[in-house]
Design a protein that fits this description.
The chain is α+β, with helices and mostly antiparallel strands. Among the domains are: about 80 residues, Signal transduction histidine kinase, dimerisation/phosphotransfer (DHp) domain (Helix Hairpins); about 150 residues, Heat Shock Protein 90 (2-Layer Sandwich), CATH 3.30.565.10. It has eight helices and twelve strands. The strands form three sheets. The chain has a five-stranded antiparallel sheet with strand order 2-1-5-4-3. Strands 7-9-10-12-11 form a five-stranded mixed sheet, with helices on one face. Strand 4 and strand 5 form a beta hairpin. The longest helix has about 70 residues.
Length: about 450
């Protein structure tokens, strides 16, 4: 079990899905990082701008005091500011031309503040508090510095930086975990399909992909693949059955022909006997050729696109011609063949193919119905389309055989001694599929009724 898990993990890390997941995680992480960076930059800029605006306003106020009362008035104003609780957090320093302090709450002039004027950040000597200030040189040569405590802003900025780092870290951690989980699940389902495929190649078509009952797209894919395998297995069984039936149906006429030829070879020539032998042999060969001709015709109908020859056809006319053609065959069995329907029931299709399909149904009804029975061909409109049905009053067929009789060479008579090759209904099914028609078998009580439901002439399918 551990070996399987390690192999699955290795395939997960090597899979293209996992690599794509990492790429998308990196892209999403970069986008979020850029977004948080913008939030940090815009917020810090806004707060710093408000602070700088307040400092500039305070500097303007002190400049006004200096202009009206000189240095003494400025010193008095600074003292007032320091005594005022509302100015808590303010930084003031008035120094002479040699930067010796004259008034304010700083012990000495910050070394970072050089020049005649400007802005700067520095730490107070009394602590680690971050200060931001502006300074300028007054007309009498003294220097004035005004600033504020921006330690809260710096702490806020640090918190945003930490939040950004943690957010990016969690994005990659959670994204990586989710990517591994999803990829592992995907690889696991793919490996399940691969394992079933290998088992099928080794042991046969009886293996199926297990379903997990999640009803997700993977279960749907597994169900579709299982259905495909069921269909392939059914086709393989059908091919084997067709092969066996073809071999059986060919063995009898070929054995007859060989027996006749062997007898003719071992006896003296006799004109009448030889002529009879030739006639019988030709009849057997004609039966074999008809079988192959029917197979070829079914294959051509199923493989080629004959819809280009589709035209509106009157099913009543086709049914009438079939009834006229088989009327004598029904009378030979003492039965009756009749048609029921209106004058015009239209469908879209190939007239020759539809004639052949209806003829096969009528021929089967006459052959397998009871002697002196009745076969009824009915054509009518229904649900916007058309229905043509062929019904007899014979013994019918078991319900569980309804879907099997359309297989090639399938015959209810297992000994296969009666005439026929089991291809008539296969041809009917092929023509129905080509025309988008639905075949339905019903118990006629007694007998069997076969119905072909055709779509509306204006529609392409049922």
């Amino acid at each position: 079990m551990s070996g399987f898990v390690s192999v699955l993990l290795a395939k997960t890390l090597r899979s293209r899905t996992f690599k794509q997941a990492l790429i998308w995680i990196a892209i999403v992480g970069a986008v979020i990082f850029a977004l948080l960076g913008y939030v940090y930059w815009s917020t810090a800029s806004y707060v710093r701008g408000r602070s700088d605006h307040a400092i500039m306003a305070e500097l303007a106020s002190l400049q006004k005091a200096y202009a009206s009362a000189g240095r003494s008035g400025l010193i008095a104003t600074i003292s007032q500011r320091l005594a005022d609780q509302r100015s808590k957090g303010g930084v003031y320093l008035l120094a002479d031309s040699s930067f010796a302090p004259l008034a304010g709450n700083l012990a000495d002039w910050p070394s970072a503040m050089k020049g005649s004027s400007g802005w700067g950040n520095f730490n107070a000597r009394e602590g680690r508090t971050l200060l931001r200030a502006t300074f300028e040189t007054l007309p009498d040569g003294s220097h004035l510095l005004v600033g504020k405590d921006v330690d809260d802003l710096d702490g806020f900025a640090q918190k945003i930086k930490v939040a950004m780092a943690l957010c990016i870290l969690w994005i990659f951690v959670l994204g990586g975990a989710v990517g591994v989980s999803i990829t592992r699940r995907t690889v696991g389902r793919i490996e399940s399909i691969n394992a079933t495929s290998r088992a099928i190649m080794q042991s046969g078509l009886d293996q199926r992909i297990p379903l997990r009952g999640t009803r997700d797209e993977w279960d749907e894919l597994a169900a579709n693949l299982n259905s495909m395998l069921d269909r392939i297995e059914a086709l393989m069984v059908e091919v084997k059955q067709v092969t066996d039936n073809v071999a059986h149906d060919l063995r009898t006429p070929l054995a007859h022909m060989r027996g006749r030829l062997e007898r003719a070879y071992n006896r003296q020539r006799d004109g009448d006997y030889d002529q009879s032998l030739i006639v019988d042999t030709i009849a057997d060969l004609d039966g074999v050729l008809r079988m192959f001709s029917s197979l070829t015709r079914i294959s051509q109908i199923e493989a080629s696109d004959r819809t280009a020859a589709f035209r509106p056809v009157n099913l009543v006319e086709i049914a009438s011609e079939v009834v006229e053609l088989f009327d004598a065959a029904a009378e030979d069995k003492g039965g009756r063949l009749k048609i029921v329907g209106g004058r015009s029931v239209l469908a879209t299709g190939d007239r020759d193919l539809l004639f052949g399909a209806v003829a096969n149904l009528v021929d089967n009804a006459i052959k397998h119905g009871r002697d002196a029975g009745q076969v009824t061909v009915e054509v009518k409109k229904a649900y916007g389309g058309a229905v043509i049905s062929v019904a007899d009053d014979g013994p019918g067929i078991p319900v569980d055989e309804y879907q099997h009789v359309f297989k090639r060479f399938y015959r209810l008579e297992r000994s296969r001694r009666t005439p026929g090759n089991g291809l008539g209904l296969s041809l009917v099914a092929a023509v129905a599929r080509l025309h988008g028609a639905r075949i339905e078998m019903l118990d006629n009580l007694p007998g069997l009724k076969v119905q072909l439901w055709f779509p509306s002439p204006t529609r392409s399918g049922w």
